[in-house]
Amino acid sequence: MRAVAASVMAAALLAVMVPRAIGAEDAIGRLLRNQAEPAKNPGPSVTTKPRGPLPVVMSARIGEHQDRTRLVIELSDPVNLRAFALASPDRVVIDMPEVSWQLGAPPRPSGYGPVKSYRFGQFRAGNSRMVIDLSAPVTVSDTLVIPPTAGFGYRVVIDLFPASRAKFDAQAGWPADLKKRESDAEKLAALIAAQTPPEVRGKKIIVLDPGHGGLDSGAIGVNGLMEKDLALAQALKLARELRGRGYGVFLTRDNDSFVPHRQRVAFARAKKADLFIALHADSHPDASITGTSIYTLNDGRSDREAAALAKRENQSDVIAGVDLSGQNEPVAPILIGLAQRDTRNKSSEFAANALKSMGQVTDLLARSPHRSASLAVLVAPDVPAVLIELGYLSNRGDAKQMNTDSWRNRVAGAIADAVDAQFTRPSAAQAGR
Ligand SMILES: [Zn+2]
């Protein structure tokens, strides 16, 4: 990008300085107040779309200068935007109300500044984010908002200055008020999850968990198919199939939004799920590797491949900048120790059933398609759980067929057959909760 010109600097002088920790009483906060802010009587806000059109992000530019890296985000409307740093791995999170991203293809960072990569998208309903991965420690400037001038919308300017490790670590962490907002959002989600609609009473409850979502795309296929979209499409098909067969079905997400691991697990437990099925697709440097595999939880003694997969799949919370304080180990040994033998047995039994029926409609991973790994979404001690890697997005054939309706229908049918097999067996059918 063009370096910041004198005219822009002049505009910057007139601009509104927005302190990073903006308060509700702050006059500038009122000025910038956005429509996505909760209304007086928000009702079930997690399911309510904000009224009116969302502010649009029209462009995002990263300018690497000698003394700083400057990020400029251009918006149609003023929004209350917050930037903060998180450590291990080092990131800068830019948190904002829900916006519509209309960026086209954003420019890639050059690689010689501190910005390694970045991504953006929805974090929660009503809440969007940009997360910047850093290759070197920085300090984050206050956020500068430049009102519209000369054909530009509102421009938000954030500077990243080179800093020592000690200085970075000292400033890194979630701002307290955002931390509270997150825990409130999770509490609200748990309250909503605890409600059981009358139509599912007496039915076996299946919780489907489409992997990734929002600003976490998961793996990207050789054909451009994104894991998060595939997982959601497959989950919606499977939900329809299972409801048709008389099951009560709930999804941890039914749109393109991000859901933290612990919230997915809490959701399944709140629903008193009889079975939890996470849907994903894998990616491998060796493009010849193909086929479906199914994972159940183990206690951390994974082989190298399984450990690498767990690392990839458990990465979601890091990618989205979730507050991980107090849960640095996504799969803490203590949690696995609580897992009941019965839950584990049922998980394995379902994995075997699913491989049997899926093997009739699609190829399985050539070597040992039933695998185990320390996966953060499988840790509920009382909910039998599996994670299905539908296939390899890194393989041309797999990616192509996973993008077709016919394959998705066949696979949904096969997984539903396995659910039937699980619950019609007398031993399983008796084992209520
Ligand atoms: Zn995944």
Structure write-up:
The chain is an alpha/beta fold and 433 residues long. It has helices at residues 6-14, 27-31, 165-171, 176-193, 227-244, 261-270, 304-314, 316-320, 333-338, 341-358, 396-402, 405-424, 426-430; strands at residues 16-18, 56-64, 69-75, 82-86, 91-97, 100-101, 115-124, 127-134, 138-140, 143-146, 154-162, 205-210, 248-251, 275-282, 293-297, 370-373, 385-392. Strands 1, 2, 3, 6, 9, 10 and 11 form a seven-stranded mixed β-sheet that branches. A six-stranded mixed β-sheet has the order 13-12-14-17-15-16, with helices on both faces. A four-stranded antiparallel β-sheet has the order 4-5-8-7. Strand 4 and strand 5 form a beta hairpin. Helix 4 packs parallel to helix 6 (261-270), helix 5 (227-244) crosses helix 12 and helix 10 (341-358) packs across helix 12. 41% of the residues are buried. It binds zinc ion. Residues 211-212, 218, 227, 280, 313 line the site of zinc ion. Zinc ion binds at residues 211-212, 218, 227, 280, 313.
